[in-house]
Amino acid sequence: MRLEFIxxxxxxxxxxxxxxxxxxxxxxxxxxxxxxxxxxxxxxVPLEVPGSTLRFGVVxxxxxxxxxxxxxxxxxxxxxxxxxxxxxxxxRCDTGQYKVYARHNPDSGWTPTKNVDWRPLHEQPNSxxxxxxxxxxxxxxxxxxxxxxxxxxxxxxxxxxxxxxETRQ
Length: 169
Description:
The protein is of the alpha+beta class. Helix content is 24%, strand content 27%.
């Protein structure tokens, strides 16, 4: 009985590791990210980021699902003193990763990031907001929540009314 439990536990761990690490399609290619629109902080969809002193919000009109399956969006971080930072990011739901494509500077506009690789959502303390976006709207498991309007709707919705199949478009 004990041996069967150990074998079952090992099989579960192996399957979980494969689902997280082996789900990447070797033929997948990232499409060129469209440039972000001019920054507009009106009507941000607020995010609850526990433990952060910053207030985060997603620009609803920026949410886009690329042909490559990447959910791209602009997220704004505001401090209590009024400093505003914005990032143009992407999430790969199938691999649980994120990338920052550009950062916004109030004086010069969007500045593309250089040589940025995909990073795991779960291992980066500075990506808690990206993980929240993935979990509360952008992704359903390892799949993309579609369409982009549904992502925005789910980001705005209370926890108990997100991802409802009867309201899907």
